[in-house]
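pls design
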């Protein structure tokens, strides 16, 4: 089992910055790709950014150049630095960890979510 705990959410004016953290605990050795998703009421959860175990990042087009995903494997933590926030970035942000162990067991783990509000 893997537990993910997010922190760093809050309210910021448009144009401001926030940094999210997601700390993993439990059976972390099997964690591969980690990611951040976001969701607004009535909409499907949207992939924001991913980062592989060797720290190769990918971003959805709407956040490229503004958000940076990073990870510290020694601390089992993934971060999302969000700059130049827009009202459209307002959502609940979820941390995700893709897990696969040596026996081939695969599953996704999710954090509890943290609210980000960028006010105009």
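designed seq:
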């Amino acid at each position: 089992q893997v537990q993910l705990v997010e922190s760093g959410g809050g309210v910021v004016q448009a144009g401001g910055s926030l940094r999210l953290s997601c700390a993993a605990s439990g059976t972390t050795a099997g964690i591969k790709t980690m990611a951040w998703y976001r969701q607004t009421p009535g909409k499907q959860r949207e992939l924001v950014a991913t980062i592989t175990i060797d720290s190769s990042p990918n971003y959805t087009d709407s956040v490229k150049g503004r958000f940076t995903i990073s990870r510290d494997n020694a601390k089992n933590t993934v971060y999302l630095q969000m700059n130049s926030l827009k009202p459209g970035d307002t959502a609940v942000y979820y941390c995700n960890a893709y897990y696969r162990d040596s026996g081939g067991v695969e599953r996704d783990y999710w954090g509890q979510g943290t609210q980000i509000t960028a006010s105009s």
